[in-house]
Amino acid sequence: MDKPKRQQRRYTNGERKACLNEFSATTAISGRDFCRRTNIAYSTWRDWQARRDKILASRRHSRHATLGGQGLQELIPFKDEPLAYMRDWRGSERYVRVFHLMRWVKANKMAWLGQYLSSKTSDAVAYKSFRTLLLRFSYRHRFRHRIPCKRKVSQQVLDSVWLGYAATFWDKYAQYDKSQILNVDETAIFYDMPPGKTLAEIGMSSKVSDGEKHSDRLTTVLTVRADDLVEELKPYGGNMWERVAFEYNRSAHATWPERDGISLKRRFQGLNKSKPTGTAYIPPNVERAKRLYMEIESKVGAIQLHDQDDDATSERSEPSSDGHEEAASLVDELVVSSRIGTEAAELVAVVKREDETCHWKKEQAEERAVWKQEQADQRRREDEQRRQESLDREEREREARKREQQHEALMMTFMAKFLGSSN
Description:
Layout: H1 13-25, H2 31-38, H3 42-50, H4 52-57, H5 80-91, H6 98-108, H7 110-118, H8 123-140, H9 155-173, E1 182-191, E2 216-225, H10 238-251, H11 261-271, H12 284-299, H13 323-336, H14 344-422
Antiparallel strand pairs: 1-2
Helix pairs in contact: 6-8, 10-11, 12-13
């Protein structure tokens, strides 16, 4: 009869430490006798004895069954350094690509790079493996390929203006209860969205019978209270935000950029920040800031489009006739305001520089257009002159041929008369 298999038992860290300490306290008993008395497999006991120091020195909770550290290990031993490099470059709003990481590793970790590349079969395989390693390293640490957008002012200036506005707001509304402060944010809802692409046979037309290219749109508002009520409703844990990001990307339009859980969480927290209430009364400083923002946007040529009844006939909004004087006064008030701070002067300087740059570029474009027009006129005059010279030359050649023909005819007549008279 076969011997029944022993049932495997799972021990916790607390049980291991207790057994090892109990065995250390007893001196007149062997390991096998101790295993028989405690009903522990001798192979398990030998493994505990081999890892005795590590088990007793572990600070992991006694309810856990492992000492930790298991699982897939990081292949790059210096992972914190390239992460700091990537975050530093993105903090200064610069491009970060895989070849930037490859250059950084080559400049700072050449010994490790040489050992890694020497383990590959060929240079092509080594390059491809190294690039894939860094790309997966970036994705594993929550870096994704995104479409870059050009900034108008530095993030430091925007942060300083934002902090100044927050200080201005709380100076005025600090006495209100947080449950009475609401953050209202406009949100566009698109429906009846036509597909962005269609499957069409190669060589055949991709036309569709429905000529509408834009979806219908509604504008709604999202209102959030400034107290902790929202904290009970927001997703909790890292996986929950990833699920939110998955649902967002699944239902988003094809032209929308992909967003991860971190960006959505930051967006949610930004909506949860305290802002003025959505009542009919707008504080003067808020109204002043909004008008200043519109003037800045119009100066740099980035006027924001607003909701209109017909998107196809929507036009860009033009600034008022006295917009420059009003903007100048608003800028002066913003700079001298002690609640906003002196950092706003940098924003004003940047806007002025952008305005001067736009004017300079416009003048350069006009000068180039005038120069091109002059060059075109000059070429046209030269072509006309060459054409006229060609016509004159052809006319002279025709006159010369005509005279030659007349001379030949005259000579033939003379010769005929001379021969006739001689006969």
